[in-house]
């Protein structure tokens, strides 16, 4: 809790009441990640007083690197944050693919894309979160708090929090990620499905010194891959592969394993002096699609509704785009017509999110190859693709 919330010596629900008394719509956002923080910032800009509960601490781990497309960046324009966003991010000017020997497979210039649609930029997720949260009043965010139960009624939802307190809301927004507790509480298992790739990996940081700050690089091999992604003042390095192989190693051991297979060069250099390998979190590369996005007074947003694989780098941008659409619909309705506003939000965003998810799945099918013959066929096919061909579904959304 913040200092102000601690001083009131009340429960989570009790500390929310002074905020909610000012609210036109009593909105609870569950999850203070990119989707939830974007929605809260936009609603506050519209004169609303949403409250946010976030399971993590205020200064806790805030994630990894994000590639932000203009689809998401334009939301920052609307919030008056774009100039600051440029200062904490890096423009991506080229994308280079390598084969398992380190040889350049294909280089994609992003000049045409950036000129036509706007910049793709790399940003530290923690810095982007801090930027979004900077416009949300401190007393509106409750850290180290979770939702234990939701009684979802046609005209309101009663929420019980982790400290046992309860509060009624006009709307609950589940923005709590791919493994959403809100979604599990409200919807049946038949209403959503996970899709796994069988791959995963670890992310780490290192110094950016000596690396091109405008180039993303990925090496695709048979059963493993490496990616390096520059952000404001450091380099993100991701090491991944087939889980059946990776889970035999720790993150540090896997780094040593793939370093042996790489020739001396920029990719091998990127695997040296990595920070935080001992505590690196293993990520399952999976996604999830919900067939229903809302029920009565509970609605899903971002990864809770449609989670994307990181292969297209569009997940954060899609979450921000959906948050913008939801904020727009909520700003033009009242409690009596919330259901209609939620229907309009789903109509605007569900197909868009699924199109982006489809594109990310398409790239995963190309990228994640376990055998040498399959990886050689993949390398041949990739040479035939243009950037527009690889990102067809994403470009369709942006246009």
UniProtKB/TrEMBL annotation:
Range of residues in the leader sequence: none
Pfam families: FAD_binding_3 (PF01494)
Start and end residues of each FAD-binding domain: 26-356
Record Gene3D superfamilies: FAD/NAD(P)-binding domain
GO MF annotation, one: FAD binding
Source taxon at top rank: Bacteria
Protein name: 2-polyprenyl-6-methoxyphenol hydroxylase
